[in-house]
Amino acid sequence: MGAFASLLCLWLVLLGCEGSRFGQPEQVHLSYPGHPASMMVTWTTYEPTESIVVFGPDPGETFSHVARGTTTRFADGGELGTVRFIHRVRLQGLVPGQRYTYRCGSQEGWSRTYSFQALLNGTNWSPRFAVFGDMGLTNPQALPRLQRETEMGLYDVVLHVGDFAYDMDALDGWLGDAFMRKIEPVAASLPYMTCPGNHEQKYNFSNYRSRFSMPGSTEGLWYSWDIGPAHIISFSTEVYFYLDYGRQLVAEQFQWLEKDLQEASQPEQRKEHPWIITVGHRPMYCSNNNKDDCTLHESTVRRGLQPHLYGLEDLFYKYGVDLELWAHEHSYERLWPVYNYKVYNGSSEAPYTNPGAPVHIITGSAGCTERLDPFIPEPREWSALRVEDYGFTRMQIFNRSHLWLEQVSDDQNGKVVDGIWLIKDWHGPEAWH
Ligand SMILES: *[C@@H]1O[C@H](CO)[C@@H](O)[C@H](O)[C@H]1NC(C)=O
Ligand SMILES: *[C@@H]1O[C@H](CO)[C@@H](O)[C@H](O)[C@H]1NC(C)=O
Ligand SMILES: *[C@@H]1O[C@H](CO)[C@@H](O)[C@H](O)[C@H]1NC(C)=O
Ligand SMILES: *[C@@H]1O[C@H](CO)[C@@H](O)[C@H](O)[C@H]1NC(C)=O
Asked: Ligand 1 pocket: which of 39, 121, 273 to mutate (most atoms <8 Å of CB)?
């Protein structure tokens, strides 16, 4: 893309081809800060303004509460260094389970009204997730259905497992803006929880780090949070592949992961949140017909940097991670419980009842310009089911022992093409024996 075309696009944005003024809020999205009774609202303007959210219970007195937050200037790393202002306001003191309506903005302009339900607190409830990766501005096949199901109230949380917009930095960040506007009906209604993928790597992941507001201090590169009976760990597989941004990041993240897993494994913690679920972009295993890391026997994510430094398979096995969610491959693949290439079915009749190893799901088929990734004809014995359709995953953690996963095919008009119960009467490494 030449400088001229970039300039043209920028002009279109600045001239407000979508009717927006510089101070008009856009790209509104929610995220869960990790503390009960709170919710983060994030949005973008093209000039500095105040950051205000007005909100109130629904039904109830409209916009009876006001919350203020912060503004951060974000200059895209491209030649033009286009500038946006990212606004963040944390809503606190929400009543668990209560529905709220809100608008965000300032005197310079207000967003339309959105609503969300404050997450329930405690561990005794059954959170419902939409899970997918690899969704672009162009060809986001799963988006219309996700939008409809969000409006129908089918989900509590969205997990977007890396790779956004294709790419957020493209056209001097304009593509990122356009994508964030497109996902807004979903992301402004549900906490939209993310992890970085390879498509976010430009300018040291600055579009990813600047646009989202995940819990913790690492700008969403790695963080963890609790919801209902689960502890969810989101991390960057990309630190292993973009070493120029800092080889030390591999060690830093690994040490953080180990510490977080240790804490989550303390008996009182694990009793409260028995499910440990990881969310990372590039899988350890896959049977796609390409040369990606997951097709290698000694994949980097699985085994770490040469010579076997910071490999994640052993770490996750050691702490009894129950479920590992991945994307990157533009397809859906479910694995039998697997560790070090060996299948550890709970039993041959019920492989996912008290499995002897973590379960891996690869769900990267939400739709993008790169379309779908085909499979090799003969999968290895660890591969349980493969679907080469556009789609996304629904996950519901029913309680301490029961977790349901199902795969929706958009090619087959929303048909559920896979479904499993993952049943664990006990969690933690003891469960492997
Ligand atoms: C949930 O939140 C309510 C209202 O804030 C509070 O009274 C209750 O103690 C909380 N319950 C748990 C299990 O945290
Ligand atoms: C890239 O970002 C990370 C994390 O924010 C930082 O620690 C690292 O130093 C950065 N690397 C470069 C080369 O700027
Ligand atoms: C695991 O269970 C599945 C389903 O019963 C079966 O097809 C597969 O062969 C089993 N694998 C092993 C190694 O037992
Ligand atoms: C957990 O949920 C499953 C599925 O709804 C149910 O069959 C099971 O009885 C529940 N377990 C407990 C302890 O409530």
From this structure: 121
